Every structure is written in C-alpha cells, then in structure tokens.
Amino acid sequence: MLRRLYDWTLSLAAGPRAPHALSAVAFAESSVFPLPPDLLLIPMCVSKRHRAWFYAGLCTIASVLGGLLGYLIGAVLFEEVAKPILAFYGYMDKFDQFAQIFDDWGWWFVFIAGLTPFPYKVITIASGVFALNLPVFIVASIVSRGIRFFVVAGLLYLFGPAIRDFIEKRLALVFTVFVVLLVGGFALIKFI
C-alpha cells in the first residue's frame, strides 16, 4: 500500500497541477500524511529549476499551515483524531515521553523536527496537546521548514539533476548532522 501511495505521489509532480499537489502534500504531511513533500519538490525543482524558489516557498507556507492543523488536532481533538494518528505511526510510546520535557524544550522540538526526517506531524500534534505558545510554534515552524525546503530547492537550482541522487539518498543524514552541530554549538556556548 505504501509503495502505491509513493508512486501516486510521485506521479503528481509531472502533472499540470503539480504546484497544487505540492501544496496539498506539504499541508497534509504536517498533520496526517505519511510521505514527505520532498517527493514532489525534488522532481519539480529538477524539471523547472527557474521555479525552485517558488516551489520551496509554496512548500514552506503549506507545511506551516498544515502544522497549524496538527496543532489544532492536538489541542482540541486529541482523543478522537490525534491518538489514532499517533498509534497508526507507532509513536504513542514516544509521544508519552515528550510530556516530561516539552515545556522546557518545545521550541527546539519544533525546530529540529522541522529539519530532520522525524515525522513533523508528531511534533505539531504534541505542540497542541502541550499548549506550546502559538507564536513560538509558528516562528519555529517557519524557520525550520523554510530552511529544509529552501536548502533542497537551492541545491537543485545550483546543481540540477546531478544532485538529485545525493539529496534523495543522504538528505536525512545531512540535516541530522546540521542539527547536531547547531544544537551542540548552542550547548557549547551555554556552558563556556
């Protein structure tokens, strides 16, 4: 089933309504959809490099708006909607762990999840459940999702199809290393 969903999502990138599909996938991925918008963003940027920045901006806006839906689901519909979504993805156990430290590190959770391959929907829902300050949530989402999608679009714009394989195979690793270095740098500054 996941393979069919993957193939269907990828086929949307070639269609005339690709920007609409990109927006829909980016929106849904931030609250309920299992596949990342990169599946559309990458082939769209490769095929129309001159529109890469537009696609990254569209992806960022739609993702942040979808994150607000995730926040709403967590804040208002936890039992009815959020719990089944989290259980479906196998994150209910991990979700319970967030309750202990979310208040102190909520901004960082949103920021890091927005950059890494960790399912962003888990963090958007958790932000609503734990009532993370909404402006903080929005700013962290804009910054992290913007960095993620504009870096992908920028690499594709600069290097074209040659960088596509690298991004598809190693993007998660690159962003994870970036986040570790960023957080490590802040920790080092704090303790020096």
From TrEMBL:
Q: Which organism is it from?
A: Pseudovibrio denitrificans
Q: Name one Pfam family in it.
A: VTT_dom
InterPro entries reported in the protein's UniProt record:
DedA_domain, VTT_dom
Keywords linked to the UniProt accession: Membrane, Transmembrane, Transmembrane helix
Enumerate the PANTHER family for this protein: ALKALINE PHOSPHATASE LIKE PROTEIN (PTHR42709), DEDA FAMILY PROTEIN (PTHR42709:SF11)
* Top-level division of the source organism's lineage: Bacteria
Segments crossing the lipid bilayer: 52-78, 105-130, 136-159, 171-189
Is Transmembrane tagged as a keyword? yes
Instruction: Provide the VTT domain boundaries.
Output: 53-157
Quote the cellular component terms of the Gene Ontology held in the record: plasma membrane
In Swiss-Prot or TrEMBL terms, this protein is called Membrane protein YqaA, SNARE-associated domain
